[in-house]
Design goal:
- By secondary structure, the chain is mostly helical.
- The chain has a domain of 185 residues.
- It is built from eleven helices and two strands.
- The chain has a two-stranded antiparallel ribbon.
- α1 packs antiparallel against α2 and α8 packs across α9.
- The protein is elongated, with a radius of gyration of 21 Å.
Length: 270
């Protein structure tokens, strides 16, 4: 293997691992484990940025007969902006008339919301608590935004009324049984104080009901870039310079139907 080939393989493997970790952590995050949100958002924002920029680099490689861009190309063009990176990816897909097996685009409002939240996280929201402490005018709260704009939307649109009723009923029963001798001190993702068992039980039930859906929507975003990278991989190989690996073999866990994504909880191992 030449050095370029090896570097691309290692970049792909590293990106696959951090994306897998981010998706897995996203399935574990809740109001009692808020730090896991930051672990997940860090991995997902970094991983999506890297796979998106790989697409830009391979596109440049194709358009310039096997030449790679300079070190300032992706930094100056995109930075950490995932929304801008997606828009660039859409342009590339259109240029090559890419035939996607799954989703043709990520224009669904929830996909765009997730990209926006993760993009803002990468550009500075990861320091939201420190910004608040030091009085910075930048006071966006990524966990609050995710809760309000992603989780609550998923609960309202993807969870059946029968399931919602069951969650509320169970929470009320547990509250009546445990409130007399149980002390609860937590805060929700929306920063509201939780001091009753019923509220805590409801939030736990809500979280469990949407976990597979929050993972699904992020996995769909990852899969979009995997599909685009697959298209670019084959076109780049036509130059016959033996520098481009089979990226699909590296990201194969993300190249699956929604039904598969819905049945799997962890993605940090093949």
């Amino acid at each position: 293997m030449n050095k370029i080939f090896r570097s691309l393989v290692e970049e792909g493997q590293f990106t696959r691992e951090i994306l897998g970790s981010g998706i897995t952590q996203l399935g574990k995050a809740n109001y009692a484990k808020k730090g896991i949100y930051f672990q997940s958002f860090t991995s997902l924002s970094t991983g999506l940025e890297r796979i998106g920029k790989m697409c830009l680099i391979i596109d440049y490689y194709i358009e310039n007969n096997g030449a790679f861009p300079g070190d300032k190309f992706v930094k100056n063009e995109i930075g950490h902006d995932l929304v801008k990176l997606y828009n660039k990816s859409e342009e590339i897909a259109s240029t090559y008339n890419t035939n996607f097996e799954f989703l043709n685009n990520l224009r669904d409002p929830l996909h765009q919301t997730i990209l926006t939240i993760l993009s803002k996280f990468a550009k500075g929201d990861r320091y939201s608590n420190i910004d608040f402490i030091v009085g910075s005018p930048h006071k966006s709260d990524p966990i609050f935004e995710w809760n309000q704009k992603v989780d609550k939307v998923l609960f309202e649109t993807r969870v059946s009324e029968k399931k919602k009723k069951k969650i509320r009923t169970n929470a009320k029963i547990i509250g009546e049984l445990m409130n007399p001798f149980t002390l609860v001190r937590h805060s929700s993702e929306s920063r509201k104080e939780i001091n009753e068992v019923e509220n805590a039980s409801f939030l736990t039930g809500m979280n469990e009901s949407i976990t597979k859906y929050r993972q699904l929507y992020v996995l769909q975003i990852i899969r979009y870039w995997v599909e685009l990278l697959k298209e670019l991989q084959y076109r780049a190989m036509e130059l016959q310079r033996n520098e481009i690996p089979y990226f699909l073999e590296i990201f194969t866990i993300f190249y699956n139907h929604d039904s598969y994504f819905m049945t799997r909880k962890t993605f940090d191992k093949n």
